[in-house]
Design brief:
The complex is a heterodimer of chains A (269) and B (283). Chain A is mainly α and 269 residues long. Chain A is built from eleven helices and no strands. By secondary structure, chain B is mainly alpha-helical. The chains are: A mainly alpha (269), B mainly alpha (283).
Amino acid sequence: MNGPPTASSAPHRPSRPSRLDWGTGATFAIAAMVLWAASAIDVPAERLKTAPGALLGLLLEFVPPDLAYGQQHVLGAILDSLAIAWVGTLIGAVLSLPLGLLAARNLFPRLGVPVKSLLAGIRAFPEILLAIYFVPVVGLGPFAGALAVGLHSIGMLGKLTADIIESSDLRPVEAVRASGGSGIAVLRFAVLPQVLSEIVALWLFRFEINVRASAVLGVVGAGGIGGLMMNSLRYRQFASTGAVILATVAVVLVVDSLSGAIRQRLTHD
Amino acid sequence: MSTAATMRPAATQVSGTTKGSGAGRPEPPDRLAGRVGMGVIFAGLVGITLWAGKLVGFSWGELLGNLDKVDRLVDDSFPPEWAFWPRLVDPLLETIQIAVLGTAGGCLIALPVALLAARTVAPRPWIYRVSRMGMNLLRTMPDLFWAMLFASAVRFGPFAGVLALIAFTVAVISKLLSESAEAIDLSVLEAVRASGGGWIETVRFAVWPQIIPHFVSYTFYAFELNIRASTVLGLVGAGGIGMVLRTQLSVFEYDRVILIVLVSLAVVLVIERISEMARRRLV
């Protein structure tokens, strides 16, 4: 609404919303929750004092990273993680595109709500819980991880695809319909050209998230670098952990900056 | 690039409305070169996909040929063993406590980090650069890696989970908050500085009032992320319901596993909804 400011035209000033009451109430509620949590998770004071030192000591044991181990095991595992993220993103992208279209309220007014709740339901299951169920079906290894990442990605990609389509310009749709275009023609000539670059940018963004997600799936045996991280810590081979962390940090940084640069070009034409 | 070419009309329309005077038709892009470029990119993407598919061992056969195993998994999981529920109450409460403490600690630490990593607020350019770099490094670590690290450093249990969530929260929230701090109205800063305020006064009177709403809203957002993350922390020994999940998973008690999964999802969704409502009320 961009009419004149209501204060000048209204006969009397509206009363101030009582923000303070909510604020103080919430502050007390939050403080109470924190106290409750702190008293329940009882942390002996000496452990609290030694924790930073313990962490620092552990971190120092990571250097120098075991580069031979890195070459032998970590390199392959981090490539597996990247492959899991790539295949997972692709599965998510391919399946989320039709779902996202169906969930767009401006194209399918009736279907929007049910499809969106389906997507929210999918989104609720974290990758790692999905992986728990894929492992017994397709076996231990990266394939289970890729399926878990793919299925979880559908939820977020479908919802944001629908959001992008909903904010698109409907006039081209009308124009194609008016000139007798079929549903397919509407998609091809009116909807996709407007939204495709934004959706591809979205897929890249999801790939960045999935690289991080796939890194931890090894915890439940679904392939990638996470298994090495866990085992090297369990057997206290900290130089190997150092190599794992180094590789993960480096790969995530490279993927983030590459993908970020491409996204920038895609969205700021 | 065909997408760029087809995007053009919309783009000129927007610039036409904002600038008023038409800037003239843009040059049509070089179609042939564009097509060749697209072809190369497309071939590259297909190549990467084939390679990645091979690495993960993608196989339709394995996916579709194992439907009997899905059957068995469903048989094993349903009906859930409801009688197991009383043993989930304490771990669930612990999960929530971990998320609360992780959020509170993380957001308190994220606040100064974000101020130092905001270009407009940082007292010195080098401080800004160092904090920004540290922040970006922190953000590369997946949440469960933090949990594994702390579970090794301070031994298994909820305390490791709290520390992991603190690290994770600092990484996420300091980034968001520093971006908000960079977008604030700078004239207020100038006013405080002009009247002789130092860095502390500037932050107290010019920056803080402008970023409080963002800070509150990010705190709730962090809580929502953390309550989600805290359910799986236990898979690596960092406390909460995930510890029970790990134990039951290792003995293949799928009728208990499904109960744990469903109950923790329900708790996550309910708490998220409450947090969202509170956030909307407050900000």
